[in-house]
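Protocol step 4 of 5: obtain the predicted structure for the target chain.
Materials: sequence only (see below). No template structures provided, no constraints applied. The aim of this step is simply to have a reference model before the mutagenesis design in step 5. Sequence pasted as it appears in the construct record:
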Amino acid sequence: MEIGIVEILKILPHRYPFLLVDRILEVEKGKRVVGIKNVTFNEEFFQGHFPGHPVMPGVLIVEAMAQVAAIGLHGIIPDQEKKILYLSGVDRCKFRRPVVPGDQLRIEAEIVSMRTRVVKCGARAMVGGLLCAQAELLSTLVKRT
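Step 4 output (C-alpha cells):
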C-alpha cells in the first residue's frame, strides 16, 4: 500500500522544513513500514553542513527514520486523535556512510514492541541498497494539549 505526500501530511504533524518523508512504499500496520526521503541540495541544512562538502546531518536521518516509523503506527494507536507520539530515546545508533544531495534514502522500520505508552522500533536507512544508518527508536505516547 503506497501513501503519497497528501496523506502523509494528514498523518504526521510535521511541516516544511521538518517533514522528512516524501512517500511510503509499504505498510504492514503494527509490523513494518518502508518510506522514501529524497535528499536534494535545496534542503536548508546543506547551507551550513558542510559548505563545500554537503552531508545530511545524522540527527535528521534519525528523525526521518522516526517519522517513517510513526506512519507505520498510524491507525493502531487507541484514541490517536487525543495523543501525539514523541521520540523519547535512541539506542544502538550507528552511522555507516554519509548521505549527500541526490541520494534517495530508503527507510525501513519494524515495530519491535508496543506497550500502553511506549513503542520500540528498529529502523535502518539505506541508499542504493547500502546501509547508511541504523537505530533502535523509543517513542512515547503523550496526551495532546
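Step 4 remarks: DSSP finds two helices and six strands in the chain. The two ends are 32 Å apart (CA to CA).
Proceed to step 5.
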